[in-house]
Amino acid sequence: GIQVEQSPPDLILQEGANSTLRCNFSDSVNNLQWFHQNPWGQLINLFYIPSGTKQNGRLSATTVATERYSLLYISSSQTTDSGVYFCAVANSGGSNYKLTFGKGTLLTVNP
Amino acid sequence: EAQVTQNPRYLITVTGKKLTVTCSQNMNHEYMSWYRQDPGLGLRQIYYSMNVEVTDKGDVPEGYKVSRKEKRNFPLILESPSPNQTSLYFCASSLSPGVDTEAFFGQGTRLTVV
Fold first, then answer.
1. Which long-range contacts (CB under 8 A, 24 or more apart) does A2-6 make?
2. Strand, helix or coil at B85?
């Protein structure tokens, strides 16, 4: 199956700093999503981005499908950005539209 | 509002007592699935459903059952729960299998089996 690697595994920032999270995947995909898991365990959709670039407020993401990686940018970080960020991919060529998740990046933003 | 709703959010139960976690989506999605999340193991798929009356095993189906009698509902059934099924469970849905569409997740259900 597809392998998904996220880096860094842990990241500690001061409020106001910028950061870049990376997701590498081992095979071609036609779906890629970024999620934020908040302290209550909820998975929040950030981006659906199988290719290209998207922006939503202080967050933006870029996926270069031909080179098998995606980047999540967080600018002017806030304490509420803390949590685990997951990248998940799917190759819907088969019968199962399963998302394969990376292990996540644990982000801590200190005031 | 488009959403996937799971119930209950939290559940503590005893070994062997049958339970059902419900999942409902209001987006007319064809594809639904269940995942469990465990420390060190990440999120793994339990079962999935391509449409009404069409279900199949994911990566970790042992100890679970599902049904899909209506398009909007996809309950997860634990006939005889055991402590190793203590986990955080997520239901997800997306528009259509094989189509490149976004998956939406429910709020999660924290299950503890004692």
1. A2/A26, A2/A27, A2/A29, A2/A89, A2/A91, A2/A100, A3/A27, A3/A100, A4/A87, A4/A88, A4/A89, A4/A100, A4/A101, A4/A102, A5/A102, A5/A103, A6/A85, A6/A86, A6/A87, A6/A102, A6/A103, A6/A104, A6/A105
2. helix
Q: Rounded distance, CA B29 to CA A66, Å?
A: 29
Query: Residues B72-108: pLDDT tens digits?
Result: 999 999 999 999 999 999 999 998 766 657 899 999 9
In Å, how far is A92's CA from the nearest CA of chain B?
Answer: 5
Sheet of B65-66: strand order equals B4-7, B19-25, B76-78, B65-66
Cβ pair A95:B97 closer than 8 A: yes
Percent of chain B with pLDDT over 70: 96
Q: Which residue has the tokens 């407020």?
A: A57
The reply to whether B101 touches chain A by the CB within 8 Å rule is: yes
pLDDT along chain A (111 residues), means of 10: 95 97 94 94 94 97 97 97 95 75 96 95
